[in-house]
Amino acid sequence: MVVAALLIGALVLGLTRFSLGEHISAALCQITSLGQGDCAVAETPARAAEDYVPPQPCVKSGDGGAWEGSVAFGVQVEGGKTWFVEALGDGRYRLTRTGTVGVGVEGGLGIDASAVVNDNRYGVALGLGGAITDQLKTGDVYYATSDEEAEAILSAADSDDLKDGSVGDHWFGRDFVDWVTNASDLEQVEAESTFVKVGVQASGDLYATLIDFDASATAEAGTYVGQTQYRDGRTMDLYTASSSGVARASGSIGDEWTEFGSAVASYAGAVTIEVDRDADGVPTAMRLVTLGSGYADTSSTNNGANDELDSVQYTEQTWQVPLGTVEQRITAGKLALGLGIEVPGVTQEISPLDFSTLDYGETWAGFKDTAKTHGYVWEQNYALNDSTNGGNLDVEALVKVGLSGEYTSRSRTATGYTYWDGTQFTTRSGCLGE
């Protein structure tokens, strides 16, 4: 009987670790211990209403820009730099700077001698092409008390990068350059966090621009893996996959250049897994973030140019699960494995014989329920408005030869924010754009 009880106990512990809940475990514990063991189920303390408010501040609005350029001679080399300042719901401002380098292969058929002004292409272009590039993104994040301070930090950080690249850092020569240029103290402000992302991006495009007519379609998809390092030693792992596409057409719709029409349709979607870790590398929380948008519009004007297009509406949903217990890590690990992602310290909790990860609907439902009960759930809606100006000079005959450059200004305005308060989704105050 003792041997049998030990065997049953071992089986129960194994099943409990990988499949069964705490209450079933407690009941089986009573059986295997003949009612003599300590089989109580730990009670989860009740959460107050404020405990459901997400710890991350909401984003009310944002403004920024991006420079991008590429050179191709069989091999495509591209680079860019973006900056974005966001007004947060807690009164702070967040500055994010990102640098991108990509190397890959692009090819197709066609010629492109055109300019892009306010998202409209002018000139002569006809062709199709595609590209696959390896991408490296690096950046840093700063916090400020005002928009003016954030802009000053941006200017100082860019100046610091320029001096680091030209004369180096931490030696008397750099001290002399700082003295001559009357360097700002903000050049030495340490970033709150830095991040690195690596991935692969594929894109394809079709375009035709003939004086008073322009039509184009572009689609791209990418996958990235990255990590954010915080100043206090914490880290965040990131796994993301995204896809987007846009089709445009514009031109004269009258006998003369007195009336112009345009049409545009676009979509974008992304799925991201984020894993928070403490300074010792122990996972503390996992988030699933989904982002989606769809847009279509037609317009006309008598001014000989296209009307400015409306902002594109985005919906971002986030589910966050704590990883403090085995059961929570199993719930999170099943979702990650269902997406094909191995998360160190989390997915190891899943038994190789547990095939429930193949039932993505069930694992997804379990993750959402755990987020509502023990974690956080929130949804943010915002409008994004881009305006691009640039130029292209390309010739493609299977192998691309050319160069291009463009600048995109971007603004973001929050249109809604709700979170799960334990019984329903409710509006979070102070989170709408002005």
In terms of topology, how is this protein built?
Elements: H1 2-18, H2 22-32, E1 59-73, E2 75-88, E3 93-117, E4 120-144, H3 147-167, H4 172-180, E5 193-210, E6 213-230, E7 235-252, E8 260-277, E9 283-301, E10 312-322, H5 326-338, H6 360-374, E11 376-397, E12 399-420, E13 425-427
Antiparallel strand pairs: 1-2, 1-12, 2-3, 3-4, 3-11, 4-5, 5-6, 6-7, 7-8, 8-9, 9-10, 10-11, 11-12, 12-13
Overall description:
With 434 residues, the chain is of the alpha+beta class. It has helices at residues 2-18, 22-32, 147-167, 172-180, 326-338, 360-374; strands at residues 59-73, 75-88, 93-117, 120-144, 193-210, 213-230, 235-252, 260-277, 283-301, 312-322, 376-397, 399-420, 425-427. The chain contains 6 helices and 13 strands. The longest helix has 21 residues, at 147-167. The protein is globular. The N and C termini lie far apart (72 Å). Residues 3-23 and 302-309 have low confidence and may be disordered.
- How many domains comprise the coordinates? 2
The major β-sheet equals: 13 strands, antiparallel
pLDDT < 50 runs, ≥5 residues = 3-23, 302-309
Number of separate helices: 6
The percentage of residues in β strands lies in over 45%
Helix/strand order: HHEEEEHHEEEEEEHHEEE
Structural class: alpha+beta
Helix content: 10-25%
How many E-type strands? 13
Quick overview of this protein structure:
The protein is an alpha+beta fold.
List keywords for this structure.
13-stranded antiparallel sheet, 434 residues, globular, 6 helices, 13 strands, disordered N terminus, single chain, alpha+beta, 2 domains
